[in-house]
Design brief:
The structure is a single chain. The chain is of the alpha+beta class and 161 residues long. The protein has a domain at 3-42 and 85-153: Lysozyme, CATH 1.10.530.10. The protein is 52% helix and 12% strand. It contains eight helices and two strands; from the N terminus they run H-H-H-E-E-H-H-H-H-H. The chain has helices spanning 3-21, 25-36, 42-47, 87-100, 105-109, 114-125, 131-141, 151-155, and strands at 61-70, 73-82. A two-stranded antiparallel sheet has the order 1-2. Strand 1 and strand 2 (73-82) form a beta hairpin. The longest helix is centred in the first third of the chain and has 19 residues, at 3-21. The chain is globular and about 40 Å long.
Length: 161
C-alpha cells in the first residue's frame, strides 16, 4: 500500500466511522497514519490494526513488540494487539471505545474542536508524552484539517454527548 493509497482508504474509513460517531475524521486519519506509519507497519498489514489497539478477551489478537513509556522513559516490551477483518472494522472499534469508555469523556466533550479532541484523546490513548503533538503534526502537515471543515463534519454531534 502506497502512502497515497493509505490516505485514500483511511479517509474513506474515517469518514464512514465519523458519520456515526461525530469524531473528527481528520484526526482519525492522522492518528492512524502516525500509529501505522501510513499503513506500512507490520501490525497494520497483519492485523488491520491502525491504532495500536490492545487485545482484549473475546476478540482475535496477535502479539507484537511495542514501546511503552514508563515515567517518561521508553521501554521495549511485547503486547497482545487486536486483530481486525478490515480497516473500517478497526476505525469503528476505535470510535466505539472513544464513545463508550469513561476515560475518553474529555475527548467526547471536545469533539467539535479537532485539536482539543486530539489532546484529550492522547491523555489516555498512549503513554508517549508527545503523542498529541505527534498526531497534530501529521494532521497539519498533510492537510487533514480539510476533512473536519466540511458541512457534514460540522453537523455531526459527538457520540455519547
Amino acid at each position: 500500500m502506497t502512502k497515497d493509497d493509505f490516505i485514500a482508504a483511511a479517509t474513506a474509513a474515517a469518514q464512514a466511522s465519523s458519520s456515526t460517531s461525530g469524531f473528527p475524521a481528520g484526526i482519525t486519519v492522522a492518528q492512524a497514519a502516525l500509529e501505522s506509519a501510513f499503513g506500512a507497519s507490520e501490525l497494520s498489514r497483519v492485523a488491520n490494526n491502525y491504532f495500536g489497539i490492545k487485545g482484549r478477551t473475546g476478540h482475535a489478537d496477535v502479539e507484537f513488540p511495542t514501546i511503552e513509556y514508563l515515567e517518561g522513559a521508553p521501554v521495549r516490551s511485547s503486547a497482545r494487539f487486536a486483530k481486525y477483518d478490515s480497516m473500517l472494522d478497526c476505525f469503528r472499534d476505535r470510535d466505539r471505545m472513544l464513545a463508550t469508555l469513561a476515560a475518553y469523556s474529555d475527548a467526547r466533550a471536545a469533539a467539535r474542536d479537532p485539536e482539543m479532541f486530539a489532546r484529550a484523546l492522547a491523555r489516555h490513548w498512549a503513554t508517549d508524552p508527545g503523542y498529541a503533538e505527534k498526531i497534530l503534526s501529521v494532521y497539519r502537515e498533510h492537510g487533514f484539517a480539510a476533512l473536519d471543515q466540511s458541512p457534514v463534519a460540522n453537523s455531526q454531534s459527538p457520540a455519547g454527548s
